Amino acid sequence: MLHDQKAQLQEQLTVVQVENKQLEEQVKQLQSSVDLADKKRAEATLRQVETLMQEIEELKIQKDTEKKEKDQILEEHQQLVSKLTSELDRESTKLVKLENDCMTYEEKVSILEEK
């Protein structure tokens, strides 16, 4: 009877060991699946980060280009204002001279009319 119990326990131990090996194999397969899923998620996240970084770089370039264009337009505007201001000053000077000349001629005409 003791021998039968020992044989029975030995058989149960063998069954448990086989089941344990099967469970260990399943755990390895599941871990492998989880690792693969984690790797794929990490790769997808990395691709998203790379895409966002590229978009940020493109936006920086676009912003720099727009700033250069605005600066150029501002410079051209300032040059035009300066040029027009100079022309206005010259024309104002001419106008003052003409007004003075006109007054001088009016004075001469007045003197001549008096004679």
How would you describe this structure to a colleague?
With 115 residues, this protein is an all-alpha fold. The protein contains one helix and no strands.
Q: Assembly type of the shown chains? A: single chain
Reading the helices and strands in chain order gives H
Radius of gyration: 49 Å
Terminal residue distance: 167 Å
Q: Profile the largest sheet.
A: none
Q: Any low-confidence stretches, pLDDT <50, length ≥5?
A: none
Mean pLDDT: 94
Q: Percent helix among the residues?
A: over 70%
Structural class of the helix and strand makeup?
mainly alpha
Brief synopsis:
It is built from one helix and no strands. The protein is mostly helical and 115 residues long. The longest helix has 113 residues.
Break the fold down into its secondary structure elements and pairings.
Elements: H1 2-114
Keywords: Coiled coil
Coiled coil: 6-115
